[in-house]
Structure formats: C-alpha cells, structure tokens
Specification:
The complex is a heterodimer of chains A (234) and B (218). Chain A has one domain: Glutaconate Coenzyme A-transferase (3-Layer(aba) Sandwich), CATH 3.40.1080.10. The termini of chain A are far apart. In chain A, the strands form two sheets. In chain A, strands 1, 2, 3, 4, 8, 9, 10 and 11 form an eight-stranded mixed beta sheet that branches. A three-stranded antiparallel beta sheet of chain A has the order 5-7-6. Chain A is 20% helix and 27% strand. By secondary structure, chain A is of the alpha/beta class. Chain A is globular, with a radius of gyration of 18 Å. The longest helix of chain A has 13 residues. Chain B has a single domain, classed as 3-Layer(aba) Sandwich (Glutaconate Coenzyme A-transferase). Chain B has a ten-stranded mixed beta sheet, with helices on both faces. Chain B is built from five helices and 15 strands. Chain B is globular and about 50 Å long. With 218 residues, chain B is an alpha/beta fold. The chains are: A alpha/beta (234), B alpha/beta (218). At the A-B interface, helix 5 and helix 6 of A face helix 3 and helix 4 of B.
Chain lengths: 234, 218
C-alpha cells in the first residue's frame, strides 16, 4: 500500500486485526447494500463475541443472519430485527442481547461517532422505553433525550464505485447507512463493485471522500432481494 | 359499516395536498398512494433514503439496489432524489416532511402511541416509527377501532410500550376520524352507517361528540 492507495487484494487482509469481542458497525438496510462478502469473511474467520451495530440483523441464512449460525454475535444494536427466526430464538433464550435503537437515532449516532460529536439531544424516544435512564433536557418547551455517539473498532460497508484513493459513490437506495457506518469505524473496510483509477471520478459527484476509508476491496455480489414485489405489465 | 382497508386508504388520501412531501408507513398508509388525485402532485418519502418513490417495478425493471422501507422493490418517479439514512431522518426530524401516516396498536387521549412491541409476544423493533412520530407535526394514525375481541384501541392511557408520548393529534379508524385535543378524543367524522353510540361504546378514552358529526365521504 502506497500513499493514498487503499486497495487491498484479499478479504483475509480486509479484516486483518478483527478480534473477538470487538464492535463492528455495518452498513446496509435489510439486504440492500450490505457488505455481503465481508460478512462471509467474518463467518469464515470465526470471530466471536461481537457487538454489531446495523439497522437490521439480516434474515435467516443471509447477511448478518450468517453470523448467528455459529453464535458469533453477542450484542446487536439495530432498529428492526423481524424476519429472522434464529435471531428471535437466540434472543429469547438469552444467547443474544439486543439494543433496539430508533432508525434515525441509529443513523445519527453513527454520524456523530464519525464527526467527533460525543452525544446529541433528540426528541425521538422521549417518554418511551428508549428514553429510560437517559438525560432529558427541555429546549423551547419540548423534551429531548441525550443519545451518545457510536464508534466501532471496525466498520464494514458496501459502495458501488470507488477510485483507488477510496473516494466513493453509492448506487440508489444501497447508500442507506453505509456512509455513516464508514465514518464511525477506527478501521473502515469498504467493498465495491468497481474500482477505477484516480481521476476518473468527478470530484463533484463523490458521495463520501476517501479520507474515511482505510481498506478498499473489489468484490462480486449476489444482491439478494428480501421482498421481490412487481406489478403486472399493463 | 366499518370502513374496508381500501376505504381507509381513500380517506387518508383526502388529507393529501398538492405539493406535499409524505411519508407512508407499511400497510394501509402505503395503499393510500393509489388514491392520490390525478391533478395533484405528492412526493413520497421512503425513510431508507428515497424521495420520489414510484410504483412497484415491472419484472424487467426490478433492481436489488432500489427498495422501500418495507424492503420491497420499487421504482423512482421523475424528479426523485437519493440520500443517506442520516439525511433522511434529518428531513424527518427537522420537520420538512408535510404529512406522516402510520399504523398503531393503541393510541390514547393524551396523544401517545404504542406501535412497535407486545412484551413477551412480538419483538421486532421500532424501525423509523419513533423518529417519525417525534419529528412530524402532521401525523395521521390509521388502525382498527377495536381489537378482534372487541377491546378498544383508543384508550385513556396506552398499556403497551410507547413509540411516542403526546405526539398524535389525528386518528383514523375503521369507524371514525378523531382529533386529540386537551386530553380528549374529539369525534370529527364517522364511517357511513356507523352511529356515534357505536363509536362511543368502543372508545375507552374520553370522547367528545359534537352536535353534528358528518359521515365520511368514501
């Protein structure tokens, strides 16, 4: 690796240094825009006791659902964990801990983590189980709760296109949590569909600058669809 | 007669206005997109990062990178935009979305809503619902007035874990349209053929029945 070139050639190298009991922040929404090959590499490595922050926990046999099979996840921080029987089973039997976090709060916690903001006030969750035990402040007659930023030892994410410096472009709604997840990890690992030479991306069209990216790898993706919904042609 | 799902969606759509940015929850709220009047422009926000959600794709248009908040494949309308999840909730939390429509298990006359969890039974998570009810000013909750066993879902105090406290001002059920003001439900409209007595019997929270309660136009 030289200068700003972030490209690495193997998934093994991509997650070098990931150890048991670390915190990983993952991009994706449902199965859309998930770092599917990096998740498979965590499964192959067999890292255990992980705390994972991600909007969802995958589905049975797909995405983060794969890491439940060998009970690699100790704690899940997510906004929605339905559609996953194994997850429910491990949760109800106490093998897995879950911290349900409102979707916007989760995104903001990652953003704050990456932007050096230790905590922020939000109205979301005030007066609900989410707000229990959290500091409350009143601004302009409304109640807000203090939410702390989220940081990870690693972040794993997926983008569409990158140049070798790690400047990233995302595609359609596969963007979702990926940009914030990347900024919130000490070591940010990003897998992409295509890597181009530096200078080939228009600086005005880069969604996330390479400064946030530590390791970049090109992969091939299955891109599973959770709810294939179509209309009949007229 | 109690409103059908289609009629509920139709009544929701009467709240739309030209130029509105609208977030529709899963289920009946989503159905209401079918009833946007032809002469009106409404832009649908999907909280996973899309403003300008279109209809479901044709088989050949299916794109795994383009889904809605219910994880269904969708399309984009002309003039759509894409953004990340923090930006998406920035526009929700910042009060930029004109109307939010979502479902619930219970609503009480203090404006609190329970919609995400039934302890010991259902643990799925709140997704974006807590942010939506806290961030939007103009919210309509749609649900059935009572459970299948006839228990009122319009309560003096919610019994399930709250999604939001004191944030709901309008509820549409299969029997009635109500506003919430000063700790009371105010009956505004009733489903065609449904009497105010019937509504009162199935409303556990305090209900104010004005002299004239028109039938809904559905």
């Amino acid at each position: 690796m030289a200068g700003f070139d972030k490209v690495i050639s193997s998934y093994e190298e991509a997650l070098d240094g990931l150890e048991d009991n670390m915190t990983v922040i993952a991009g994706g929404f449902g199965l859309c825009g998930i770092p599917e090959n990096l998740i498979k590499e965590i499964k192959r490595k067999g890292t255990k006791g992980l705390t994972i922050a991600s909007n969802n926990a995958g589905v049975d046999g797909k995405g983060l659902g794969l890491l439940l099979e060998d009970q690699q996840i100790k704690k899940m921080i997510a906004s929605y964990v339905g559609e996953n029987a194994l997850f429910m089973e491990q949760l109800l039997s106490g093998k897995l801990e879950v911290e349900l976090t409102p979707q916007g709060t989760l995104a903001e916690k990652m953003r704050a983590g990456g932007a050096g903001i230790p905590a922020f006030f939000t109205a979301t969750g005030y007066g609900t189980p989410v707000g229990e035990g959290k500091e409350v402040r009143e601004f302009d007659g409304r109640h807000y709760i203090l939410e702390e930023a989220l940081k990870g030892d690693f972040s794993i994410a997926k983008a569409w296109k990158a140049d070798r410096f790690g400047n990233l472009m995302f595609r359609k709604t596969a963007r979702n949590f990926n940009p914030m997840a990347i900024t919130a990890g000490k070591i940010a690992v990003v897998e992409v569909e295509e890597i181009v030479e530096v200078g080939m991306l228009d600086p005005d069209e880069i969604h996330l600058p390479g400064i946030y990216v530590n390791r970049l790898i090109q992969g091939t993706f299955a891109k599973d669809i959770e709810q294939r919904t179509v209309r009949a042609s007229a | 007669m109690a409103l059908t799902r289609e009629q509920l969606a139709q009544r929701v759509a009467q709240e739309f206005q030209d130029g509105y940015y609208v977030n529709l929850g899963i289920g009946i709220p989503t159905l209401s997109a079918n009833y946007i009047p032809k002469d009106m422009q409404v832009m649908l926000q999907s909280e996973n990062g899309l403003l300008g959600m279109g209809q479901f794709p044709l088989e050949e248009e299916v794109d795994a990178d383009l889904i809605n908040a219910g994880k269904q494949t969708v399309t984009m309308v002309t003039g759509a935009s894409i953004f990340n999840s923090a930006e998406s909730f920035g526009m929700i939390r910042g009060g930029h979305v004109d109307l939010t429509v979502l479902g619930a298990f219970e609503v009480d006359c203090q404006g609190s809503i329970a919609s995400y969890m039934i302890p010991g039974k259902l643990i799925k998570g709140m997704g974006g619902a807590m942010d939506l009810v806290a961030g939007a000013d103009n919210i309509i909750v749609t649900m059935t007035h009572a459970s299948k066993t006839g228990q009122s879902k319009l309560l003096s105090e919610c019994t399930l874990p709250l999604t939001g406290k004191g944030c709901i001002k309008r509820v549409l059920t299969d029997l009635a349209l109500m506003d919430i003001e000063g700790g009371k439900f105010i009956l505004r409209e009733r489903a065609p053929g449904v009497s105010t007595e019937e509504i009162a019997n199935l409303t556990e929270g305090e209900l104010v029945i004005p002299d004239n309660v028109p039938e809904m136009a559905v």
